[in-house]
Amino acid sequence: MIKINLLPKKEIKKAGKKIEIKLSGEIVKKLAIPVGLTLIVLVAILVYCEITKSALEKDIQLQKRTIEGLQKKIQEVKKFEAMNKDIEAKAKLIENLKKMQSAPVSILSIVVKRLPDGVWLTALTFDNTITVEGIGFSNLNVVQFVDNLKATPELQDVYLVESQQTEFEKQAVYKFTVKFKLKV
C-alpha cells in the first residue's frame, strides 16, 4: 500500500513540534496539597509497614526461642518417660520375683499333699512350666500321683512326660517326669 501525505508542509512542521505546557502558579498550588498529602500518606504507610515488619521479625525470633526451649523440655520429658518406663519395668520385675519367691514353697506344698504312698520326688524345676521328677514303686502309684495333680484346682495342663522302669538299689522302680502349669 502506498502512503500519500496530503497535509501542507507548514502543518507537517507544526504536527512534528512538541507541545509545551505552561503551568501557572495557581495550578501548582492547587496540585501541591493533594500531591503532598499523598506523599505523606505513602511515607506513613511505608513507616507503618517497616514497624510492623520489624515487630513481626522480633515476634518470629521470640517464637523460635520459645520453640527451642520447648524442644529441650520435650527431650527432658522423653528422658523422664523412659526413666519412668524403666522404673515401672523394674517394679514389675520385683513384684514377679516376690511372687516367684513364694511360688516354690506353695508349689512344693501342693505337690507334696498330693503325693501318694510309694512315690517320692527327686527334682522340681521352674520355668514357664513346672517339671517334677520322681520315683515310684509301681506304675499305678505314678498314675495315681498324676491323677491327684490333675484334680488340684491350683494346677493346669498336668501331663505325664515319661515313665520308665529302672533299678534303684536292686529294686525295680519307675522313674517318671510330670509337667504342669500353675493357674494364674
TrEMBL record:
Q: Where, by residue number, does the polypeptide cross the bilayer?
A: 31-48
Keywords, ordered alphabetically: Coiled coil, Membrane, Transmembrane, Transmembrane helix
Checking InterPro entries in the record gives:
Extracell_DNA_Util/SecSys_Comp, PilN
Which chain positions lie within coiled-coil regions? 53-100
Q: Does the keyword Coiled coil apply?
A: yes
Q: Which Pfam families does the annotation name?
A: PilN (PF05137)
Per its UniProt record, what PANTHER family does this chain match? DNA UTILIZATION PROTEIN HOFN
Please give the name of this protein: PilN domain-containing protein
Source organism of the structure: Thermodesulfovibrio autotrophicus
